[in-house]
């Protein structure tokens, strides 16, 4: 099983890259999507209410308020991670169990280097784009303030820190069709290398 991790800062195009791999029928584990599902669990809502009472309003999570709290204080951020990660790990194991016959799996995980989990992957793709485009994407999509955007970005390793780990960088400034070609070339290269190593069939 060849594991590809996709990482990068908020708004750099991780999900876009993951969606391209999905076009080629490669299973995708989307950590952000799984976290959203976990946050809908009633026991999680209760635990959040116990820690941060103000983020729960009429049994719904005020996600903007939660984000503001955790990205304003690293200790609060760690509390949330400690609460959610065990649930995320359960979903990850389910994903791998379901797709155990597949030879290529893709993991859309924002904090690979921050959580020191890079050794879990055979290849890591680092999504990147210019800061102006990144800011525009996030502010338009998430409807957050510019100051919160800055706090989120500063809470993660910088691009220069991440490239020290020598990931495969994909620049998402380019148009979608160009990104498809880049990902297809990458998939083809992986398949060829696996064939060279005696693994003649890659199930995608």
Structure notes:
About 50% of the residues lie in helices and about 15% in strands. It has helices at about 15-25, 30-40, 40-50, 65-70, 75-100, 130-140, 145-155, 160, 175-195; strands spanning about 1-5, 30, 55, 60, 105-110, 125-130, 170. Mean pLDDT is about 90; it is low at about 200-204. Strands 2-5-1-6-7 form a five-stranded parallel β-sheet, with helices on both faces. With about 200 residues, the chain is of the alpha/beta class. The relative contact order is 0.21. It has two domains: about 1-25 and about 100-145 and about 160-204, 3-Layer(aba) Sandwich (Rossmann fold), CATH 3.40.50; about 35-100, no CATH class. Strand 3 (about 55) and strand 4 (about 60) form a beta hairpin. It has nine helices and seven strands; from the N terminus they run βαβααββααββαααβα.
Task: Explain the layout of strands and helices.
Blueprint: E1 2-7, H1 14-23, E2 28-30, H2 31-38, H3 42-51, E3 56-57, E4 60-61, H4 63-70, H5 74-98, E5 104-108, E6 123-128, H6 131-142, H7 146-154, H8 159-162, E7 168-171, H9 176-196
Parallel strand pairs: 1-5, 1-6, 2-5, 6-7
Antiparallel strand pairs: 3-4
Helix pairs in contact: 1-9, 2-5
Brief description of this entry?
By secondary structure, this protein is an alpha/beta fold. Helices cover 52% and strands 14% of the residues. It has 9 helices and 7 strands; from the N terminus they run βαβααββααββαααβα.
